[in-house]
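Report of the visiting student (M.T.), summer placement. My assignment was to run the structure pipeline on a short list of targets and document each run. The first record concerns YbbL ABC transporter ATP-binding protein.
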Amino acid sequence: MASLRLSGLRHRLLEPVELSLESGELAFVSGPSGSGKSLLLRAIADLDPHEGEAWIGDQARSSMPAPVWRRRVGFLPAESFWWADRVGEHLPPAEPALKDWLERLGFGPETLDWSIARLSTGERQRLSLVRLLAQRPEVLLLDEPTANLDPNNRDRVESLIEGYRQDASASLLWVSHDPDQRRRLDGRSLLIRDGRLEPESWA
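After the run finished, the structure tokens were exported:
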């Protein structure tokens, strides 16, 4: 896997960002509602208009087609989109880790036959993580992936994400409003304040 680097990345709410994440590094982003956290992730994923450049290792986003970049830089939005009727239609059956990932999040093999319409918000949230990991991204951009989960399922999600990060040496930028979570997982903490991304002080 590779590092993530941002140079002068800017959207309408945020001043130019300079940021480097080493391969396998975890960094959290927090800040007031509306400060631009989700927009930052969407800009990195090349989903919204922005200025500046991003790199995976020594490969610039501008040097590759957008679909290739979005496979390598996986974005998990706060609300997931589902386009087919059943869960299994969104997941590659040949993925060797699929059964293990589902089990670790509390799902059995029958889940693949479930209708999307029957899923709760929390089930959609957990299954959208599996769908993202199945693309084997080198960078993960996570927008509040545990916000709607009870403590048991929150712990399951945290464990799966941490396992993937370590096994794949994936760089990880995680939007979280939970200070206990940020301390528990011991990543670098960043804060968006007054349009700037800066280190978060725990003082």
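The beta strands are 4-11, 14-21, 26-30, 51-56, 59-60, 73-76, 139-143, 171-175, 188-193, 196-199. Residues 151-168 form the longest helix (18 residues). I thank the supervising group for their guidance throughout the placement.
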